[in-house]
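User: Predict the structure for this protein chain, please.
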Amino acid sequence: MNPREATPCGRPSRRRGGAFPSIQAGPAAGETGGALPPDIATNQGNRPMTASFHRRALLAAGLAPLAAPALAQPGPYPSRPVTLLVGFPPGGQSDFIARLVQPGLSRLLGQPVVVENRAGAAGNIAIEAAMRARPDGHTLFAANGAFVTINPHTFPNLGVDPRQLVPVGMLAQSPMVLNVHTAVPARSIAEFVAWAKPQPEVLYGSVGAGTLGHVAMEYLAARTGLTNLTHVPYRGGGPANQDLLAHRFAGLFDGASGALPFIRGGQSRAILVTSPQRSPVLPEVPTAVEQGLEGFTFTNWFALFAPPATPPAIVRQVNAALGEVMASPEVRGRILAQGDTPGGGGPEGVEALIAREYPQWGSVIRDQKIRADG
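Assistant: Here is the predicted structure, written as structure tokens:
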């Protein structure tokens, strides 16, 4: 393969949020009032200064205090359509899961839920949009777990901490699959390494620089002694898989649901899965542990998040709706058919995954000196 034939997306750029508008101060106290009329100022007739008289006096002077505004009470949630952000373009695994739960969430929340793809920079554009959104539940984020556990390490200049996003609930988990073009003469990781080592250069793809697929391949290279791999990043699973089928690179790590159609169609070949057990939809593909890579076990997971400081009551409401959607036989069936495990449960399950994986991936990224932003 000629590296010039590959069509990388180029170095991801991070879109920075604009400056917040300045808040104009109101007039200083006393700037707009007039003096009290003399008769009122002296309380002619020495009438008792009753509350009602005092108020009339102030009214006459134009100094009646403004009525104290009632404390702002949140109205019924949601009061308008809800935006569901996705960090990758249509056609990938994140987009599939978001659009799968969209109708059920719309029905249960009583407002339209609109999927909005904010692709680019390994999800960072969507991360920043979610972080800066109003914390009122009208923006939600169907996020890949790597956005929270990997991006802060591979993009040290990100400028925000995605761990401040508020977990709502798990959407799905998927084993990662090492998926290669059928021209690659390998059906196991040992055969892949034996084929790759003598090559002057082996191109591999990913759904974006700094993503789980990128980090996983670099981790595999370190574990197997491959030093001649060159990364070709794309903006999402759709474009990456198109170029895999065109044989512009040798292979990539992808979620099972993203890789399955091409494997079943004979257009690509899976040689490894990263789950603890073999995938029910790919029973013929051995795990990494079975092939001698002890500890090479992880999943590609997706969760629903809300912006930082979203009120707990709204989080509970959205979680209850999500739980009902995830319990639907139709939704569960479609997720299982893709080779994924349906989500559900409360925010604590997502929090536990973040607490475990954030330091684990941080260690790998530091050891391999992986950076996505140069």
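The beta strands are 82-86, 113-117, 139-144, 166-181, 202-206, 229-233, 251-255, 268-273, 299-306, 341-344.
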